[in-house]
Amino acid sequence: MPALPLPPGSTIGILGGGQLGRMLALAAGRLGFDVAILEPEPNAPASRVAAHTVVGAYDDPTALAELAKLASVVTYEFENVPAAAVEHLTSLGVQVAPGALALAVAQDRVAEKTFLNGAGVPTVAFAAADSAEAAREAVAAMGAPVLMKTRREGYDGKGQRWVEHIADAPAAFEAVGGKPVILEAPADFVRELSIIAARGRDGGIAVYPLAENHHEKGVLRRSFAPAEVSKDTAAQAERIAAQILGALDYVGVIGIELFEMQGGKLLVNEIAPRVHNTGHWTMDGCEVDQFEQHIRAVAGWPLGPTHAHARVEMLNLLGDEASAWAKLAGEPETRIHLYGKHEARPGRKMGHINRLRPL
Amino acid sequence: MPALPLPPGSTIGILGGGQLGRMLALAAGRLGFDVAILEPEPNAPASRVAAHTVVGAYDDPTALAELAKLASVVTYEFENVPAAAVEHLTSLGVQVAPGALALAVAQDRVAEKTFLNGAGVPTVAFAAADSAEAAREAVAAMGAPVLMKTRREGYDGKGQRWVEHIADAPAAFEAVGGKPVILEAPADFVRELSIIAARGRDGGIAVYPLAENHHEKGVLRRSFAPAEVSKDTAAQAERIAAQILGALDYVGVIGIELFEMQGGKLLVNEIAPRVHNTGHWTMDGCEVDQFEQHIRAVAGWPLGPTHAHARVEMLNLLGDEASAWAKLAGEPETRIHLYGKHEARPGRKMGHINRLRPL
């Protein structure tokens, strides 16, 4: 196992070469680290700012061994990392952070909500179903409407649908893939918020101000941060973050999506064991952004400050919206971040902007 | 010639793979550009965060041709780029910024001061001497003491010495290398200041607040920014920057070192046609730092805002001072930047910190 804190000049491995890996690599570079990316696609966004890239599948033992030779510590930019990959890296003497428990919980929506409730963190009511008939029975027990989602995979609104009547449940089960599902009671929320938090190897916790998030077609469109929330709401969110981080014995940055209910109660919608799109505002609104914070945590460094020094509106640039770069670059209040993706497919996250206002 | 403004996804070439090249590459990455480094050493600090590296001498036509194939626009991190390299790249259809005039002026201290005075910018009195005897005559004409410097090369206080008596001039001439020199009248300055400024391809100018600089043994130790200066001093500095940038038809960021004289008059000590160590404070004190500003300028993008949002003390980490990284990383007011250099030779610039206070 590597000596921690990890000295500058060491190499940090990242599973995944997309924009989150790229922004992590840029942050690691600022701190004097080298980065090694493992990613199936050659020439990925993160690879182009990293010292090393291993091109291979995430579960390819040869590729993982190559990564383990390069890197002292490995992290990841997406939660669907195969559990076997983490085990293999660990067996090769590489520390993987966040750890296996966080991944297991984040990969299965039933395990996630079960874990959250067990840690004392409220969520919507839910049930699991492994067959069309079981789905029908569960909807009958919960009452319609319910939101049906595949237990595993699916993101940005994919693999989910509303079941409006009990009788529709079996067809919905087949429509989302005929695989095990979770059924979630509707959350009659006022707003969607999120909190980005970090936990260091020493158990220390750092929490950013809340963001208020707006989705379109299941994809994050805008975040406003710091969100205007009551002291009680902020305290609730910080308590939730601390409970989750502690219960997972977590190391790194986590994104926690919250529903704010009428009356102010917060429910956790989902957790992402990684840097998070709703934390991109920290790149221009905080002294230490979520990417540097994550690198600090996985490297065993002390966590940095999390207070905001500006009010930020973060806007994702989807598909050909990024072609407005010249106009956006000319707006004095706008900081622009582009991911180096060559093909602007519709809805693809090509970059984001942070529009700043004084606090 | 490439279409400007240069679209994201394009490749920007950088001559030089040291820390300035590295921080330029990180800034280019944030904007969605790829970077190609040309540098004689393999595995240089900038190469490890760049998509491409051409390992070769700066004046090697094969290496330059390879760089020209990769990059639409080329810039540099040091002012001693051979003029022939710029000519060769230009002949291959690559735009080099800043241009040949800025380089020529910055490479020869006599040309530099002659240019400055010609542009209406005050400097200390000076004379040129090409021989030991000419040096003696010049000192006799100016009066001792004078500061003798080689006309070309020399940085961080190397290749210079004080001549206290007329009779010492010939020996001093031999001691600094027996090559053409400049003799400078002493500047009885109150403070050393600097101004970091940028000029875009459209002729637009952006100027950062002044920094107050403290050197030790000829090497920058600390900068304080924004420096506490009078409105008149700030206006003088901005006027000087505008005169220099305009007269050079400059594109990019320039560092202008100033002497503040008793009574407030500013003299230009020297100019550096590149991002500058006294501008590192902008990385944490401004929304758009000098590195992104330089990339914006050479890419033909609009320049970004330059106001400070914090008061910064920048401290260079020289030699093994960088080994205090763990302690420094734990200071909440301190942002740490490390350059990924493996060997901490005495006096070598290994990184810097920016300590922040509210404005």
UniProtKB/TrEMBL annotation, chains A, B:
This protein's source sits in the domain of life called Bacteria
Instruction: Please list the reactions this protein catalyses.
Output: 5-amino-1-(5-phospho-beta-D-ribosyl)imidazole + hydrogencarbonate + ATP = 5-carboxyamino-1-(5-phospho-D-ribosyl)imidazole + ADP + phosphate + 2 H(+)
Q: Where does the chain bind ATP?
A: R109, K149, G154, Y155, D156, G157, K158, G159, Q160, E192, H215, N269, E270
Where in the numbering of this chain does the ATP-grasp domain appear?
Answer: 113-299
Q: Which Gene3D superfamilies match?
A: 3.40.50.20, ATP-grasp fold, A domain (3.30.1490.20), ATP-grasp fold, B domain (3.30.470.20)
The first-level EC class reads ligase
Q: Does the keyword Nucleotide-binding apply?
A: yes
Q: Which GO terms describe its molecular function?
A: 5-(carboxyamino)imidazole ribonucleotide synthase activity
Q: In which pathway does it act?
A: Purine metabolism; IMP biosynthesis via de novo pathway; 5-amino-1-(5-phospho-D-ribosyl)imidazole-4-carboxylate from 5-amino-1-(5-phospho-D-ribosyl)imidazole (N5-CAIR route): step 1/2
UniProt cross-references to InterPro entries, sorted A to Z: ATP-grasp, ATP-grasp_carboxylate-amine, ATP_grasp_subdomain_1, PreATP-grasp_dom_sf, PurK, PurK_C, PurT/PurK_preATP-grasp, Rudment_hybrid_motif
Q: Which UniProt keywords apply?
A: ATP-binding, Ligase, Nucleotide-binding, Purine biosynthesis
What's a Pfam family this protein contains?
A: PurK_C
Its EC number is 6.3.4.18
The Swiss-Prot or TrEMBL record describes its family as follows: Belongs to the PurK/PurT family.
- Purpose: Catalyzes the ATP-dependent conversion of 5-aminoimidazole ribonucleotide (AIR) and HCO(3)- to N5-carboxyaminoimidazole ribonucleotide (N5-CAIR). Catalyzes the ATP-dependent conversion of 5-aminoimidazole ribonucleotide (AIR) and HCO(3)(-) to N5-carboxyaminoimidazole ribonucleotide (N5-CAIR).
- What PANTHER family does the record point to? PHOSPHORIBOSYLAMINOIMIDAZOLE CARBOXYLASE, PURINE BIOSYNTHESIS PROTEIN 6/7, PUR6/7
Q: How does it assemble?
A: Homodimer.
- State what protein this is by name: N5-carboxyaminoimidazole ribonucleotide synthase
Give the organism the record lists.
Phenylobacterium koreense
Gene name of this polypeptide: purK
